[in-house]
Amino acid sequence: LAVFSCFFLAFDPSRGLESATKATDSAPRPQMSKTIQTTSVMTSLETQQEKRLGTLMLCGGGKLPEEIRSRFFSLGGAGNGSLVVIPSASPSSDHSDHAKFLRYWQNYSWKNVKILHILNRHDAQGDDVVQLLKSATAIWIAGGDQNRLASRYQGTSVESEIAGLIGRGGVVGGTSAGSAIASSVMIAGGQHLPTIKYGFNLLPNAIVDQHFSQRNRYSRLSSAVQNFPERVGYGIDEGTAVLFGPEKTEVIGRGNVYIYHSKKSPSVSANADLAPTVVSAGTSIANSELITLTE
Fold it and tell me: Which one of the listed residues 88, 90, 176, 213 is annotated catalytic?
């Protein structure tokens, strides 16, 4: 029985699909420092790294509103766009069960959609993988278990090419585990106390958590930020996306993004949760006008 280490699967949106074949935390909610409406401030990726031409879209999991997927489609070049979907966070992806990942995008008229799924780190360095990702205008990282993504792709050419797409003007999006992997200090699990491992370095000086208020992960992210006080924590609700773009930072969807920074709560004891700044869906502000949480 032969097992192929790489899967490249595509569909033509005009013809349809071609197939190749958690428990809720019980910690109390923290007191919020403030709620930001559409003209307020949030941390910008532009203050943390060099100018980028593209967009990083991080989603909190759950059912995503049409607004989020439509924005991703538009940022990815719409009908002229080439999408690569990475389903590897899902255990089912190891069994060539990729049709559902393609079906998720079948109502959008991409020029082409391909699956990138790799079983081992060695193959993540292959020239064919690099060329596939270089040809993409959009990359979508599906949900599941972020540890599966880290073990196969962290520190490989896959991570480098994902970052490279943002640098050259494309869009990278992820949901659930696909968002958690975006920070090099990655929350890999845990209930109230986080388990920390290495993720991608797509969002420098940050820690990302997802399914946030729905799974009561306030204490988990607060603890992570207190252990890494130089980093900003982003807790993203289900059905919500935060977009780090070249000119502005936005929150869209139906929930909130919770931003944690230990420097904003210098008097908090080691056993107390930090008070997050809450950013409402509908927030959009020019990066040049942002006041960062790290100042």
Answer: 176
